[in-house]
Specification:
CATH topology of the largest domain: Aminopeptidase
Radius of gyration: 23 Å
Structural class: alpha/beta
Largest sheet: 9 strands, mixed
Number of domains: 2
Shape: elongated
CATH architecture of the largest domain: 3-Layer(aba) Sandwich
Helix content: 25-40%
Distance between the termini: 24 Å
Low-confidence stretches: none
Number of helices: 14
Mean pLDDT: 93
Length: 477
């Protein structure tokens, strides 16, 4: 389980010393006895924007938190989470270790979004800090006084946060400690803690399967690769055919002999897709969703030594496809290709792959959303989930011309296309290895933050965990 555990959440029948009153309008102030004498002053500050107003009270501290008025689903819930992130700052600055959120007039789904914002924003990665720098946030517990929010709602929120925190931890961990082998051990532990089964294939088994893409990328490394199979298959699963989630697991990417000429300091995040798959399945298992889900995560680093592949090499993939390597920094699609072919044995209902795959996607979406490609697969419900959790999806077409772009003179296909549509030609390459309903998500833009933005803290964001959980819960479970 993540060493960074989310804030404890529980239902209560009475408020404590620190109370957060969540309101939607000025008239909601009438019900708050502690601030009657300050009502006029507070009301003057309330507008259509959100507000956090903290005042001392007889009990200790009273906080008024007003939601911003939004009509669109995505912005409505997002502004509620952003309000939660503001509350997290106030609570920690006041050195509050426990507070009660009182919500009697706001819709329960909005109140839960505020709670989610507080919980997600409170994440810290302190493993390698010492002394005063290792100081944890004081906030440890949130009580909830709201008739329409259940213990089950809070348990679900906590489990989703736990999966998100686990994904963030994996991304934030330095590559010197999080090798493919160590990552597999941590996946196993997370599975034991939350309930999913983990099977780890070592290098010998990967060689027996002839996974030429994964083995090829690994050739320059002193650390062996792993192929990780995560499974959650409860007896009451509503789907006989599994949803298969495939995550890119490049624990560190130098670019290989096509060495990166841009900053390499964030390349530990190149396993963000695999981290998201692991976190999502952890959340699904912890909440015991009645759905059959399989996760496939090929893991290796991409380094340079005398045995490393070079541009002009040809790799034979698990499928038998011959791939001309023209750029060793287009390595993620090589390891994903083997995983996508491996997924065929499950006769899946749907396969979704997640990967920090291309700079082209990041340049289009930035951290605002995810670049998506699909071929004759309905993406409507996934887009709806993206709007709800604010991990929005921008769909790109897979026109025939992009298939032409990866044709090779030397082999069956090549691992890069031309200058146009880099994220689309990458998806087109992956599509070659599928024969089932399939959606590709390029999370290169939102997977890692250089500074805090609301509840998306600096470092690994865990993007994809909440998206996948919401989609699977609402479309299958």
């Amino acid at each position: 389980m993540s060493t960074n555990l989310p804030i404890e959440l529980q239902k209560v029948k009475a408020a404590g010393d620190v109370t957060i009153h969540l309101i939607g309008s000025k008239k909601d102030l009438d019900a708050i006895a502690e601030v009657k004498e300050l009502k006029k002053k507070i009301a003057e500050r309330i507008s259509d924007e959100d507000l956090v107003f903290a005042v001392p009270s007889a009990k200790g501290l009273t906080i008024i938190a007003k939601l911003k008025k939004e009509t669109e689903t995505s912005y409505r819930f997002q502004s509620a989470r952003a309000l939660g992130a503001k509350l997290k700052k106030v609570l920690n600055s006041e050195k509050v270790d426990a507070a009660t959120l009182v919500s009697q007039t706001v819709k329960p789904e909005d109140a839960l979004a505020v709670l989610e914002g507080i919980v997600l924003a409170n994440y810290q990665f302190l493993t390698y800090k010492t002394g005063d720098r290792a100081k944890a946030n004081p906030l440890k517990k949130l009580n909830v006084l709201a008739d329409k929010i259940s213990e089950a709602d809070l348990k679900e929120l906590n489990a989703i946060a736990l999966g998100t925190f686990a994904a963030r931890d994996f991304v934030n961990e330095p590559p010197i400690t999080l090798t493919a082998t160590e990552w597999s051990k941590r996946m196993e532990k997370l599975g034991n803690d939350t309930g999913f089964k983990t099977t780890v294939l070592d290098k010998k088994k990967i060689e027996a399967l002839r996974m030429g893409g994964l083995l090829g990328v690994n050739k320059g490394s002193v650390e062996p690769p792993t192929f990780n199979i995560l499974e959650w298959k409860p007896k009451n699963a509503k789907n006989k055919k599994p949803i298969v989630l495939v995550g890119k697991g490049v624990t560190y990417d130098t670019g290989g002999y096509n060495i990166k000429t841009v900053q390499m300091a964030q390349m530990k995040s190149d396993m963000g897709g695999g981290a998201a798959v692991t976190g999502a399945i952890a959340a699904i298992a912890a909440n015991k969703l009645p759905v059959y889900v399989v996760g496939l995560i090929p893991a290796t680093d991409n380094r340079i030594d005398g045995k490393a592949i070079v541009a002009d090499d040809v790799l034979t993939m698990m499928s038998g496809t011959k791939v001309e390597v023209l750029n060793t920094d287009a390595e993620g699609r090589l390891i994903l290709a083997d995983a996508l072919h491996y997924a065929k044995q499950y006769d899946p209902e749907l396969v979704i792959d997640l990967a920090t795959l291309t700079g082209a996607a990041a340049r289009v979406t930035d951290y605002f959303g995810i670049a998506m490609c699909a071929d004759k697969t309905d993406t409507t419900k996934l887009k709806e989930s993206g709007e709800r959790v604010y991990e929005r999806l921008m769909e790109f077409p897979m026109w025939r011309e992009f298939h032409t772009a990866i044709k090779s003179d030397m082999a069956d296909i090549k691992n890069i296309g031309g200058a146009a549509g880099g994220n689309i030609t990458a998806a087109t390459f992956l599509h070659h290895f599928t024969d089932y309903p399939w959606i590709h998500l390029d999370i290169a833009g939102p997977s890692f933050m250089n500074s805090d933005v609301d509840y998306r803290v600096k470092g690994g964001t865990g993007v994809g965990v909440r998206l996948l959980y919401d989609f699977i819960k609402n479309s299958v479970a």
